[in-house]
Amino acid sequence: MKPFLIMITLSLPSVSFGGVENRVHQLLNQWRTAKAAKEAEALLATMPDLPAIQEAAARVKFFQGRYEDALDLLRRARAAAKRDSPLLPLIQATYEETRDHVAYAGKHFTVHVPPGPDQVLADYLIEALEEALARHGPRFGVTVKEPIRVEVYPSLESFARISTLSLEAIKTSGTIALCKFDRLMLVTPRVTLRGYDWLDTASHELIHLLISRRSHNTVPVWLHEGLAKYHESGWRGDYGEPLAPYSAELLAKAIQKDELISFARMSPSMALLPSQEATATAFAEVKTAIEYMLEKKGDGVVIGLLDSIREGRGQLDPAFKNLFQTDLQGFERSWAKWLKKRPMETVSGARKLALEFGENRSSADDMDPSRPDGPAGRRARLGDMLYRRGHHEAAAIEYRRAVDKAGTGYPGLVHRLADCLIASKSFEEAQKLLKKSAEQAPDDPRTWILLGRLGLRSERWQSSREAYEEANRINPFDPEVHDALAQLGIRLQDQELHQRELRAKARLQGAERPGSKEPTSNTTKDKETAFITLISSPWAEILIDDQAIGRGTPLTDYPVSPGTHEIELRNTALGLKKRLRVTLKPGQRLHKEMTLGREKDDHDKPAK
How far apart are the first and last CA of the chain? Predict the structure, then answer.
């Protein structure tokens, strides 16, 4: 279940080393970092001032995530050799991009995230990766002894600096994550409008790491990607999840037009294919190639193929002849013949959902303007007018007529109809509509959030939890998701879920940001500013003068200008809100405790 994002594995270009340090570089090229570290330490102990040894040791430190130590060694090497190492710019950039990151440790992983909202990712990443390792480790024959480093980057620009890929290539291909230098790297979902399937992406990158370690980094790109794509969802279910609807549609078209992308064209990197559609087609191809392998030879083919390629030092034909009694070209031909007969998981009305880069939106703020033309469009516009005024039953009638005429290819229209159906308690109709929407575009978090709301309103707690967790796997920055899951933890008597979601809400609001503290005031500021403290039951998102402030309740001593303000507290998950108008004097501190209700824009009396 993924938009057209690329998750790849790359290595530093091999450099020819002819001295005693050559063995260290060979081991690093084979992703045998622990062994390379032992070799480098031994060389440093005997030849600490030799620049070539210092460079080799610096590269080891870089693979270990010890960037400052690596830079120190490179500076020493530069002073002695009177030249800069080619490794210096990359290591310097990586150090600068990660030095302020916050580290969270699990049993087998250390997750490094930028301070601020991205800290919400840490618990989920550790939880998913531990599950993934427990499943994937035995499958690929790899045991992890030292913690694996995971890094999250806050922007495409920062990702470009440390990935050796250009910003243009990242945007064109949809590259969003890498397994490189014996660690996992991904871009925060905040860089996209509605997120991406970031937890499956992390699992995907982990598989790349396991493949590289088992094979000593000898596996070609197409096989790397096929194995990772086929197995990526296994941390949360069965291996070999069906192709995403739009990917299946692209693959079916490529077969029909005889335009399959050859395995050779996928090298040296999927990131160099010309478009997100081309990369999606290639990923679908290689995933089915692994399906074909497993169908012919069973699960043991995974380790058997990796070991054969490693023993042949990257030679593919002997490995394929050993396992499939044909060389690589013969295997590719037989797979293509099989593929033409394979049924495709196409879905009528499947929607293209490529990565859209931009400021991340919450479901409450994301009013997709897409609507049909003609009579259906007029019905949709009338529905919008009624929807904005809170006339949900009447709006549903108009939206339903629009959908009947135009179909379900307009997600904004479908979502507004579903929201109205939920508000008017037409639960079964809403369920049917949203299930269809999820089939057509499984990576749209708005559909899953609406399914979560439906479960809450109809008191189907477990189905609500499953839907909100699906949304969280795509866009973890929507406050509604964590608010709802925290409430569901109480409903389901799952204290661990409740506490996890309370932590997530706190991290989104900056409570764990390094150096964060409650606002302080001095006498002058107190005289020029008013302060608001808001406590609500249940939790609510806060808008002041119709602007979301990015905070929720409880809110303590939030500074505002003196005067009259309109305040709205809303819990979209439960359809609850509260509005109040307050008039504040300079230096005044207002404290309000409220219970949210279903009243429509009722105002409290002005606060004095």
Answer: 53
Contacts of 13 (CB under 8 A, 6+ apart): none
pLDDT for residue 598: 60
- Which two tokens mark 301? 């083919």
Contact (CB, 8 A) for 598 and 556: no
Digit-coded pLDDT (tens) for 336-372: 999 999 999 878 777 776 678 887 876 655 556 667 8
Which one has a higher pLDDT value, 576 or 437?
A: 437
Quote the mean pLDDT of the chain: 89
Give the torsion through C-alpha atoms of 337, 339, 342, 347, to 10 deg. Answer: -140
Q: Are 574 and 458 in contact (CB under 8 A)?
A: no
Residue-wise pLDDT tens digits, 230-277: 999 999 999 999 998 889 999 999 999 999 999 999 998 887 888 889
- Read off the tokens for 44: 């440093």
- What is the DSSP-derived secondary structure letter of residue 530? E
Domain 523-607 annotated CATH 3.30.1380: no
Burial class for 209, CB neighbours closer than 10 Å (0-12, 13-18, 19+): buried
Q: Is the pLDDT of residue 393 over 70?
A: yes
Which alpha helices (DSSP H) does 359-460 contain, by range?
374-388, 392-406, 411-423, 427-440, 445-457
Alpha-carbon gap, residue 441 to 443, rounded angstroms: 5
For residue 302, the number of C-alpha atoms closer than 13 Å in the C-beta half-sphere is: 25
363-508: CATH topology: 1.25.40
Distance of CA 574 to the CA centre of its chain: 26
Please provide the size of the chain in residues: 608
DSSP H/E element including 605: strand 603-607
Question: What are the start and end residues of each CATH 1.25.40.10 domain in the chain?
Answer: 363-508
SS3 152: strand
Do the bridges between strand 541-544 and strand 547-552 make them parallel or antiparallel, or are there none, so unpaired?
antiparallel
DSSP letter at 271? G
User: Residue 456's closest CA among 488, 411, 431?
Assistant: 488
Question: For residue 284, with 0-12 CB atoms within 10 Å meaning exposed, 13-18 middle and 19 or more buried, which class applies?
Answer: buried
543 CB burial (10 A radius; 0-12, 13-18, 19+):
middle
Q: How many CA atoms lie within 13 A of 584 on its CB side?
A: 26
Contact 54, 77 (CB under 8 A): yes
Reported for 117-121, long-range contacts at CB under 8 A and 24+ positions apart, including other chains, are: 117/190, 117/477, 117/507, 117/508, 117/510, 118/152, 118/154, 118/188, 118/190, 119/507, 119/512, 119/513, 120/476, 120/477, 120/482, 120/504, 120/507, 120/508, 121/152, 121/188, 121/189, 121/198, 121/476
Matching residue, tokens 């979902």: 189
Nearest to 284 by CA among 234, 328, 342, 323: 342
Pinpoint the residues of the chain covered by CATH 2.60.40. Answer: 523-607
